[in-house]
Amino acid sequence: MASSRKPAVNLIDTVGQILKKYISDQQFHITVAVSGGLDSVVLLYVCWKLADLLPLSLHALHINHQLQPINKSMEEFVTSICQDWSIPLSIERVECDLNAGLGLENAARTARYNIFKNTPTDFLLLAHHANDQAETLLTQFFRGAGLPGLSAMPEQRLLAGSAVQLLRPFLQVSRAEILELANRYQLKWIEDPSNQNVYYQRNYIRQILTPVIEQKFPHWLDVAERTRSHFVKAQKLLNDLAQIDVLFCAHENSLVAEKVISLGEERAANLIRYWLAKQGLPVPQQSQWLNWWQQVLLAQPDKHPRLSFANISLVSDRGYWYVIANLEAWVSFELRQWPMEEIDIPGVGILTSSPVFGAGINVESLNHGVVVSRRRGGESIKIHPHRPHKAIKKIFQELDIPLWARDYWPFIMNQQGIVAIPGIGVSVEHQASPDEWGVELAWRFNISHGQGGGSHVKI
Question: Is 348 in the same domain as 408?
Fold first, then answer.
Protein backbone atom coordinates (compact mmCIF):
# COMPACT_ATOMS: atom_id res chain seq x y z
CA MET A 1 0.00 0.00 0.00
CA ALA A 2 2.84 2.42 0.84
CA SER A 3 6.62 2.19 0.80
CA SER A 4 8.61 1.80 4.00
CA ARG A 5 10.85 4.79 3.23
CA LYS A 6 10.67 7.70 5.65
CA PRO A 7 8.16 10.39 4.58
CA ALA A 8 9.10 13.95 3.67
CA VAL A 9 10.31 15.69 6.79
CA ASN A 10 8.79 19.07 5.95
CA LEU A 11 5.21 17.77 5.79
CA ILE A 12 5.62 15.66 8.91
CA ASP A 13 7.11 18.65 10.71
CA THR A 14 4.35 20.97 9.51
CA VAL A 15 1.57 18.81 10.93
CA GLY A 16 3.60 17.87 14.01
CA GLN A 17 4.25 21.50 14.93
CA ILE A 18 0.57 22.36 14.51
CA LEU A 19 -0.50 19.47 16.72
CA LYS A 20 1.99 20.53 19.40
CA LYS A 21 0.34 23.97 19.55
CA TYR A 22 -2.91 22.45 20.78
CA ILE A 23 -1.94 19.36 22.75
CA SER A 24 -0.42 18.73 26.16
CA ASP A 25 2.18 16.16 27.11
CA GLN A 26 -0.58 13.76 28.12
CA GLN A 27 -2.01 11.20 25.73
CA PHE A 28 -4.64 12.70 23.47
CA HIS A 29 -6.98 11.30 20.87
CA ILE A 30 -7.13 12.47 17.25
CA THR A 31 -9.51 11.31 14.56
CA VAL A 32 -8.77 11.88 10.88
CA ALA A 33 -11.78 12.25 8.57
CA VAL A 34 -10.89 10.12 5.54
CA SER A 35 -12.95 10.20 2.38
CA GLY A 36 -10.52 8.07 0.38
CA GLY A 37 -9.38 10.98 -1.78
CA LEU A 38 -5.82 12.24 -2.17
CA ASP A 39 -5.80 14.89 0.56
CA SER A 40 -7.34 12.87 3.37
CA VAL A 41 -5.26 9.76 2.58
CA VAL A 42 -2.05 11.80 2.81
CA LEU A 43 -3.19 13.39 6.08
CA LEU A 44 -3.95 9.96 7.53
CA TYR A 45 -0.53 8.73 6.40
CA VAL A 46 1.25 11.71 7.99
CA CYS A 47 -0.63 11.22 11.27
CA TRP A 48 0.17 7.52 11.16
CA LYS A 49 3.87 8.41 11.05
CA LEU A 50 3.44 11.02 13.79
CA ALA A 51 1.82 8.46 16.09
CA ASP A 52 5.32 7.13 16.80
CA LEU A 53 6.63 10.60 17.65
CA LEU A 54 3.84 12.21 19.67
CA PRO A 55 1.64 11.04 22.60
CA LEU A 56 -1.40 10.51 20.46
CA SER A 57 -4.01 7.83 19.89
CA LEU A 58 -4.98 7.75 16.20
CA HIS A 59 -8.39 6.86 14.84
CA ALA A 60 -9.94 7.22 11.38
CA LEU A 61 -13.49 8.19 10.46
CA HIS A 62 -15.13 7.55 7.09
CA ILE A 63 -18.54 9.00 6.25
CA ASN A 64 -20.44 7.33 3.44
CA HIS A 65 -22.97 9.85 2.09
CA GLN A 66 -24.62 7.15 -0.06
CA LEU A 67 -25.17 9.62 -2.88
CA GLN A 68 -23.37 7.90 -5.76
CA PRO A 69 -22.27 4.35 -6.70
CA ILE A 70 -18.59 5.06 -6.04
CA ASN A 71 -19.29 5.70 -2.34
CA LYS A 72 -19.28 1.96 -1.66
CA SER A 73 -15.87 1.55 -3.35
CA MET A 74 -14.47 4.45 -1.36
CA GLU A 75 -15.69 2.91 1.89
CA GLU A 76 -14.04 -0.40 0.99
CA PHE A 77 -10.82 1.38 0.03
CA VAL A 78 -10.61 3.32 3.31
CA THR A 79 -11.26 0.10 5.21
CA SER A 80 -8.38 -1.54 3.33
CA ILE A 81 -5.75 1.15 4.04
CA CYS A 82 -6.75 1.34 7.70
CA GLN A 83 -6.29 -2.41 7.96
CA ASP A 84 -2.88 -2.16 6.27
CA TRP A 85 -1.77 0.58 8.68
CA SER A 86 -3.48 -0.95 11.74
CA ILE A 87 -5.55 2.21 12.33
CA PRO A 88 -8.93 1.79 14.09
CA LEU A 89 -11.70 2.92 11.75
CA SER A 90 -15.29 4.05 12.31
CA ILE A 91 -17.66 4.06 9.34
CA GLU A 92 -20.79 6.18 9.39
CA ARG A 93 -23.42 5.84 6.66
CA VAL A 94 -25.66 8.91 6.54
CA GLU A 95 -28.88 9.90 4.83
CA CYS A 96 -28.62 13.39 3.33
CA ASP A 97 -31.85 15.35 3.59
CA LEU A 98 -32.32 16.50 0.00
CA ASN A 99 -35.79 17.88 0.74
CA ALA A 100 -34.65 20.53 3.22
CA GLY A 101 -33.99 23.10 0.49
CA LEU A 102 -30.26 23.21 1.27
CA GLY A 103 -28.95 21.83 -2.01
CA LEU A 104 -26.88 18.69 -2.40
CA GLU A 105 -23.56 20.11 -1.17
CA ASN A 106 -25.02 21.74 1.94
CA ALA A 107 -27.17 18.72 2.75
CA ALA A 108 -24.08 16.49 2.65
CA ARG A 109 -22.12 19.00 4.75
CA THR A 110 -24.90 19.14 7.36
CA ALA A 111 -24.98 15.35 7.60
CA ARG A 112 -21.19 15.27 7.91
CA TYR A 113 -20.96 17.84 10.67
CA ASN A 114 -23.70 16.14 12.66
CA ILE A 115 -21.39 13.13 12.76
CA PHE A 116 -18.32 15.23 13.52
CA LYS A 117 -19.75 16.90 16.62
CA ASN A 118 -20.74 13.54 18.11
CA THR A 119 -17.41 11.84 17.45
CA PRO A 120 -15.69 10.69 20.68
CA THR A 121 -12.34 12.41 20.15
CA ASP A 122 -10.25 15.36 21.31
CA PHE A 123 -9.40 16.62 17.83
CA LEU A 124 -11.04 15.86 14.51
CA LEU A 125 -8.63 16.54 11.63
CA LEU A 126 -9.75 17.63 8.15
CA ALA A 127 -7.48 17.70 5.12
CA HIS A 128 -8.37 21.14 3.72
CA HIS A 129 -5.22 22.69 2.24
CA ALA A 130 -4.00 26.05 0.92
CA ASN A 131 -5.79 25.66 -2.43
CA ASP A 132 -9.05 24.85 -0.63
CA GLN A 133 -8.54 27.94 1.53
CA ALA A 134 -8.03 30.21 -1.47
CA GLU A 135 -11.02 28.66 -3.26
CA THR A 136 -13.13 29.29 -0.15
CA LEU A 137 -12.05 32.92 -0.18
CA LEU A 138 -13.13 33.26 -3.82
CA THR A 139 -16.41 31.46 -3.16
CA GLN A 140 -17.23 33.83 -0.29
CA PHE A 141 -16.20 36.83 -2.40
CA PHE A 142 -18.63 35.90 -5.17
CA ARG A 143 -21.37 35.47 -2.58
CA GLY A 144 -20.80 39.00 -1.33
CA ALA A 145 -19.83 37.72 2.11
CA GLY A 146 -18.77 39.94 4.98
CA LEU A 147 -15.58 39.66 6.99
CA PRO A 148 -16.54 36.38 8.75
CA GLY A 149 -17.01 34.66 5.39
CA LEU A 150 -13.95 36.26 3.82
CA SER A 151 -11.88 35.06 6.77
CA ALA A 152 -12.53 31.61 5.26
CA MET A 153 -11.51 28.52 7.27
CA PRO A 154 -9.77 28.78 10.65
CA GLU A 155 -6.97 26.37 11.50
CA GLN A 156 -8.76 25.36 14.70
CA ARG A 157 -12.23 25.86 16.13
CA LEU A 158 -14.56 24.24 18.64
CA LEU A 159 -17.57 22.62 16.98
CA ALA A 160 -20.78 24.30 18.14
CA GLY A 161 -22.66 22.18 20.67
CA SER A 162 -19.74 19.80 21.08
CA ALA A 163 -16.45 19.31 22.91
CA VAL A 164 -14.73 18.29 19.67
CA GLN A 165 -11.95 20.56 18.37
CA LEU A 166 -11.86 20.80 14.58
CA LEU A 167 -8.31 21.07 13.26
CA ARG A 168 -7.04 21.70 9.70
CA PRO A 169 -3.26 21.12 9.76
CA PHE A 170 -2.79 21.35 5.95
CA LEU A 171 -3.94 24.96 5.46
CA GLN A 172 -0.36 26.11 4.81
CA VAL A 173 0.29 23.18 2.46
CA SER A 174 -0.49 23.31 -1.26
CA ARG A 175 -2.23 20.63 -3.25
CA ALA A 176 0.98 20.18 -5.26
CA GLU A 177 2.98 19.42 -2.11
CA ILE A 178 0.41 16.85 -1.01
CA LEU A 179 0.48 15.20 -4.44
CA GLU A 180 4.28 15.15 -4.43
CA LEU A 181 4.37 13.23 -1.13
CA ALA A 182 1.70 10.79 -2.30
CA ASN A 183 3.62 10.01 -5.49
CA ARG A 184 6.98 9.75 -3.73
CA TYR A 185 5.68 7.14 -1.30
CA GLN A 186 3.38 5.41 -3.74
CA LEU A 187 0.21 6.11 -1.81
CA LYS A 188 -3.02 5.20 -3.51
CA TRP A 189 -6.33 7.05 -3.43
CA ILE A 190 -9.65 7.25 -5.25
CA GLU A 191 -10.72 10.22 -7.36
CA ASP A 192 -14.32 11.22 -6.68
CA PRO A 193 -15.88 11.81 -10.15
CA SER A 194 -18.25 14.42 -8.69
CA ASN A 195 -15.22 16.69 -8.19
CA GLN A 196 -15.10 17.17 -11.97
CA ASN A 197 -18.69 18.42 -12.22
CA VAL A 198 -18.34 22.16 -12.82
CA TYR A 199 -22.06 22.67 -12.19
CA TYR A 200 -21.10 23.03 -8.54
CA GLN A 201 -19.59 26.42 -7.74
CA ARG A 202 -16.57 25.10 -5.86
CA ASN A 203 -15.67 22.76 -8.74
CA TYR A 204 -16.10 25.55 -11.28
CA ILE A 205 -13.69 27.75 -9.33
CA ARG A 206 -11.22 24.88 -9.00
CA GLN A 207 -11.38 23.49 -12.53
CA ILE A 208 -12.04 26.61 -14.63
CA LEU A 209 -11.20 29.79 -12.74
CA THR A 210 -8.09 29.10 -10.66
CA PRO A 211 -5.99 27.66 -13.54
CA VAL A 212 -6.48 30.97 -15.36
CA ILE A 213 -5.55 32.96 -12.24
CA GLU A 214 -2.51 30.77 -11.60
CA GLN A 215 -1.24 31.25 -15.15
CA LYS A 216 -1.22 35.04 -14.76
CA PHE A 217 -0.44 35.17 -11.02
CA PRO A 218 1.70 32.13 -10.11
CA HIS A 219 1.99 33.19 -6.45
CA TRP A 220 -1.71 33.79 -6.01
CA LEU A 221 -2.03 31.31 -3.11
CA ASP A 222 0.36 33.40 -1.03
CA VAL A 223 -1.45 36.60 -2.00
CA ALA A 224 -4.84 35.07 -1.14
CA GLU A 225 -3.56 33.98 2.27
CA ARG A 226 -2.12 37.42 2.96
CA THR A 227 -5.43 39.04 2.01
CA ARG A 228 -7.36 36.57 4.13
CA SER A 229 -5.15 37.34 7.13
CA HIS A 230 -6.10 41.03 6.82
CA PHE A 231 -9.77 40.05 6.95
CA VAL A 232 -9.14 37.92 10.04
CA LYS A 233 -7.45 40.81 11.84
CA ALA A 234 -10.21 43.24 10.89
CA GLN A 235 -12.85 40.78 12.13
CA LYS A 236 -11.00 40.42 15.43
CA LEU A 237 -11.19 44.18 15.95
CA LEU A 238 -14.93 44.09 15.27
CA ASN A 239 -15.33 41.22 17.73
CA ASP A 240 -13.41 43.18 20.37
CA LEU A 241 -15.77 46.11 19.83
CA ALA A 242 -18.80 43.80 20.00
CA GLN A 243 -17.59 42.40 23.34
CA ILE A 244 -17.57 45.95 24.74
CA ASP A 245 -21.05 46.58 23.35
CA VAL A 246 -22.43 43.32 24.78
CA LEU A 247 -21.30 44.39 28.25
CA PHE A 248 -23.08 47.71 27.71
CA CYS A 249 -26.32 46.32 26.25
CA ALA A 250 -26.80 42.86 27.79
CA HIS A 251 -29.46 42.09 30.39
CA GLU A 252 -29.45 38.44 31.47
CA ASN A 253 -30.03 36.63 28.14
CA SER A 254 -31.51 39.63 26.34
CA LEU A 255 -30.33 43.00 25.02
CA VAL A 256 -31.67 46.37 26.15
CA ALA A 257 -33.25 47.82 23.01
CA GLU A 258 -32.65 51.47 23.85
CA LYS A 259 -28.94 50.86 24.40
CA VAL A 260 -28.57 48.86 21.18
CA ILE A 261 -30.35 51.55 19.16
CA SER A 262 -28.09 54.22 20.66
CA LEU A 263 -25.09 52.51 19.00
CA GLY A 264 -26.36 53.26 15.51
CA GLU A 265 -27.19 50.78 12.75
CA GLU A 266 -23.70 49.60 11.72
CA ARG A 267 -22.42 49.06 15.25
CA ALA A 268 -25.70 47.46 16.32
CA ALA A 269 -25.49 45.06 13.35
CA ASN A 270 -21.98 44.08 14.42
CA LEU A 271 -23.22 43.50 17.98
CA ILE A 272 -26.16 41.32 16.87
CA ARG A 273 -23.99 39.18 14.59
CA TYR A 274 -21.47 38.64 17.39
CA TRP A 275 -24.14 37.99 20.04
CA LEU A 276 -25.87 35.36 17.91
CA ALA A 277 -22.67 33.71 16.69
CA LYS A 278 -21.35 33.32 20.25
CA GLN A 279 -24.49 31.32 21.02
CA GLY A 280 -23.88 29.09 18.00
CA LEU A 281 -26.88 30.63 16.21
CA PRO A 282 -27.26 31.73 12.58
CA VAL A 283 -27.09 35.41 11.71
CA PRO A 284 -29.52 37.34 9.50
CA GLN A 285 -28.69 38.48 5.99
CA GLN A 286 -27.93 42.17 5.54
CA SER A 287 -31.26 42.87 3.83
CA GLN A 288 -33.15 41.11 6.64
CA TRP A 289 -31.28 43.06 9.27
CA LEU A 290 -31.93 46.44 7.62
CA ASN A 291 -35.64 45.68 7.35
CA TRP A 292 -35.75 44.72 11.04
CA TRP A 293 -33.83 47.86 12.01
CA GLN A 294 -36.39 50.09 10.30
CA GLN A 295 -39.24 48.21 11.99
CA VAL A 296 -37.67 48.70 15.40
CA LEU A 297 -37.08 52.41 14.88
CA LEU A 298 -40.65 53.04 13.72
CA ALA A 299 -42.49 50.62 16.03
CA GLN A 300 -45.15 51.94 18.39
CA PRO A 301 -44.88 50.89 22.07
CA ASP A 302 -47.65 48.28 21.67
CA LYS A 303 -45.99 46.63 18.66
CA HIS A 304 -43.54 43.74 18.80
CA PRO A 305 -41.30 43.63 15.70
CA ARG A 306 -40.08 40.16 14.87
CA LEU A 307 -37.36 39.00 12.50
CA SER A 308 -37.52 35.33 11.53
CA PHE A 309 -34.58 33.74 9.72
CA ALA A 310 -33.12 30.24 9.52
CA ASN A 311 -34.71 28.42 12.49
CA ILE A 312 -34.88 31.31 14.97
CA SER A 313 -36.53 34.69 15.51
CA LEU A 314 -35.26 37.96 16.92
CA VAL A 315 -38.07 39.60 18.88
CA SER A 316 -38.49 43.05 20.43
CA ASP A 317 -40.81 43.34 23.42
CA ARG A 318 -41.11 45.75 26.36
CA GLY A 319 -37.77 47.38 25.67
CA TYR A 320 -35.74 44.19 25.28
CA TRP A 321 -34.49 42.10 22.37
CA TYR A 322 -34.15 38.36 22.63
CA VAL A 323 -33.83 35.33 20.40
CA ILE A 324 -36.20 32.37 20.36
CA ALA A 325 -36.58 29.20 18.33
CA ASN A 326 -39.24 29.24 15.63
CA LEU A 327 -42.44 27.41 16.49
CA GLU A 328 -41.50 24.57 14.11
CA ALA A 329 -38.96 23.52 16.75
CA TRP A 330 -41.73 23.03 19.30
CA VAL A 331 -42.72 19.40 18.80
CA SER A 332 -45.22 17.76 21.17
CA PHE A 333 -44.07 14.62 22.96
CA GLU A 334 -45.65 11.95 25.15
CA LEU A 335 -44.52 10.85 28.61
CA ARG A 336 -45.78 7.50 29.85
CA GLN A 337 -44.60 8.36 33.34
CA TRP A 338 -43.54 11.78 34.55
CA PRO A 339 -39.80 11.89 35.31
CA MET A 340 -38.81 13.83 38.43
CA GLU A 341 -36.08 15.65 36.55
CA GLU A 342 -35.60 18.43 34.04
CA ILE A 343 -37.32 18.16 30.69
CA ASP A 344 -35.61 20.23 28.01
CA ILE A 345 -37.69 21.55 25.14
CA PRO A 346 -34.88 22.52 22.75
CA GLY A 347 -34.71 26.20 21.91
CA VAL A 348 -37.79 26.97 24.03
CA GLY A 349 -37.36 26.23 27.74
CA ILE A 350 -37.02 23.75 30.57
CA LEU A 351 -39.66 22.05 32.71
CA THR A 352 -38.59 20.95 36.17
CA SER A 353 -40.49 18.85 38.72
CA SER A 354 -40.37 18.74 42.49
CA PRO A 355 -42.55 17.06 45.14
CA VAL A 356 -44.86 19.28 47.19
CA PHE A 357 -47.33 18.34 49.95
CA GLY A 358 -50.97 19.34 49.58
CA ALA A 359 -50.59 21.22 46.30
CA GLY A 360 -49.67 20.85 42.65
CA ILE A 361 -50.76 17.97 40.41
CA ASN A 362 -51.78 14.66 41.91
CA VAL A 363 -49.25 11.98 41.01
CA GLU A 364 -51.79 9.64 39.45
CA SER A 365 -52.65 12.20 36.81
CA LEU A 366 -49.05 12.23 35.59
CA ASN A 367 -48.45 8.48 35.73
CA HIS A 368 -51.15 7.47 33.25
CA GLY A 369 -49.56 9.07 30.20
CA VAL A 370 -49.53 12.77 29.39
CA VAL A 371 -48.52 14.86 26.41
CA VAL A 372 -46.44 18.00 26.68
CA SER A 373 -47.73 20.31 23.97
CA ARG A 374 -47.86 23.96 23.03
CA ARG A 375 -50.91 26.18 22.79
CA ARG A 376 -53.18 25.74 19.77
CA GLY A 377 -55.68 28.49 20.54
CA GLY A 378 -59.18 28.50 22.01
CA GLU A 379 -58.33 26.44 25.12
CA SER A 380 -59.89 26.98 28.53
CA ILE A 381 -59.23 25.60 32.02
CA LYS A 382 -61.19 25.25 35.27
CA ILE A 383 -58.80 25.98 38.15
CA HIS A 384 -61.22 26.86 40.96
CA PRO A 385 -63.93 24.34 41.93
CA HIS A 386 -66.61 27.00 42.39
CA ARG A 387 -65.83 29.06 39.31
CA PRO A 388 -66.48 28.33 35.62
CA HIS A 389 -63.92 27.48 32.96
CA LYS A 390 -61.81 30.42 31.89
CA ALA A 391 -60.26 31.07 28.47
CA ILE A 392 -56.48 30.70 28.45
CA LYS A 393 -56.27 33.81 26.29
CA LYS A 394 -57.99 35.85 28.96
CA ILE A 395 -55.72 34.43 31.70
CA PHE A 396 -52.64 35.35 29.66
CA GLN A 397 -53.97 38.88 29.28
CA GLU A 398 -54.72 39.22 32.99
CA LEU A 399 -51.23 37.97 33.90
CA ASP A 400 -49.70 40.35 31.34
CA ILE A 401 -47.76 37.54 29.72
CA PRO A 402 -45.92 38.85 26.64
CA LEU A 403 -47.49 38.04 23.30
CA TRP A 404 -44.38 36.21 22.08
CA ALA A 405 -44.45 33.83 25.08
CA ARG A 406 -48.06 32.72 24.70
CA ASP A 407 -47.59 30.47 21.67
CA TYR A 408 -44.57 28.80 23.28
CA TRP A 409 -46.15 28.09 26.66
CA PRO A 410 -46.23 24.34 27.50
CA PHE A 411 -49.52 22.59 28.25
CA ILE A 412 -49.71 19.26 30.10
CA MET A 413 -52.47 17.27 28.40
CA ASN A 414 -54.15 13.87 28.54
CA GLN A 415 -56.88 12.33 26.42
CA GLN A 416 -59.58 14.24 28.29
CA GLY A 417 -57.96 17.66 27.97
CA ILE A 418 -55.70 19.99 29.94
CA VAL A 419 -54.09 18.62 33.10
CA ALA A 420 -52.09 21.71 33.99
CA ILE A 421 -50.40 24.78 32.58
CA PRO A 422 -47.13 25.75 34.28
CA GLY A 423 -47.43 29.20 35.79
CA ILE A 424 -51.21 29.22 35.29
CA GLY A 425 -52.73 26.42 37.32
CA VAL A 426 -53.97 22.84 37.57
CA SER A 427 -57.37 21.60 36.38
CA VAL A 428 -59.57 20.89 39.41
CA GLU A 429 -59.88 17.18 38.66
CA HIS A 430 -56.09 16.80 38.67
CA GLN A 431 -55.23 18.84 41.75
CA ALA A 432 -53.56 17.09 44.69
CA SER A 433 -55.71 16.99 47.86
CA PRO A 434 -54.52 18.79 51.02
CA ASP A 435 -53.39 15.51 52.60
CA GLU A 436 -51.37 14.01 49.73
CA TRP A 437 -48.18 14.65 47.87
CA GLY A 438 -48.36 16.42 44.55
CA VAL A 439 -45.95 17.46 41.82
CA GLU A 440 -44.94 21.07 41.37
CA LEU A 441 -43.88 22.05 37.87
CA ALA A 442 -41.59 24.98 37.16
CA TRP A 443 -41.19 26.45 33.68
CA ARG A 444 -38.16 28.44 32.58
CA PHE A 445 -37.75 29.94 29.14
CA ASN A 446 -34.34 29.59 27.58
CA ILE A 447 -34.43 33.33 26.94
CA SER A 448 -35.30 36.26 29.16
CA HIS A 449 -37.57 39.13 28.21
CA GLY A 450 -35.86 41.42 30.66
CA GLN A 451 -38.44 41.50 33.43
CA GLY A 452 -36.12 40.84 36.34
CA GLY A 453 -35.87 37.10 35.76
CA GLY A 454 -39.59 36.72 35.07
CA SER A 455 -38.91 33.91 32.62
CA HIS A 456 -39.13 31.42 35.50
CA VAL A 457 -42.63 30.47 36.60
CA LYS A 458 -44.07 27.58 38.58
CA ILE A 459 -47.34 25.98 39.67
Answer: yes
